[in-house]
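Changelog-adjacent note: as of this version, every example in the card shows the full chain rather than a window. The one below runs 175 residues end to end.
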Amino acid sequence: MRRRVQFGFLHLVCVLLAVGCSAKPIAKTNQSSDPAEGPVVRVYLLDGEYYEKRAVETGEEGPFAAPDNSFRTWPILDSRRITAQEIASSIREAISDPANFGGGGADCFNPGLGISIDEGDKQVDAVVCIECEWVYRYEPGKEVEKETLSAAGKEKFARLYAEVFPEESQQQRGK
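Full-length structure tokens:
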């Protein structure tokens, strides 16, 4: 099930890249947004199974310390700074469109996607688990918002994932 969901999400990301969007690898440092250049949008490929694997490896239930190279406590496998305005706009819309939220959601949370949007005076981070249909949204000074994805939201985030990380899409097709 997870592979099928990841493949669908990866397919979505590939479609977006084909439309003319570009994504470049970035250093994992905090860079503030320059208002003249627009928002800084970063997308992270996360190891959503990290804590489950640690529990199996150690025989303990945790809690475990987050690894050094992490986004909102989840290990980063890869990252991209989004430079194309079309995909940056699609990502901002996906995070803010209420139609993308309000589904059922499962009991797990193994996120594979992290999103960070820095608009200078406003920072929004999100961690997305497409498999279980949950999004955790973080904004400074606010409690973490936990929302479920609607069917449309699940499809939208899956397409974004595939567009930004097309190599993951290729790996999923080969499995």
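Structural remarks: The chain has five helices and eight strands.
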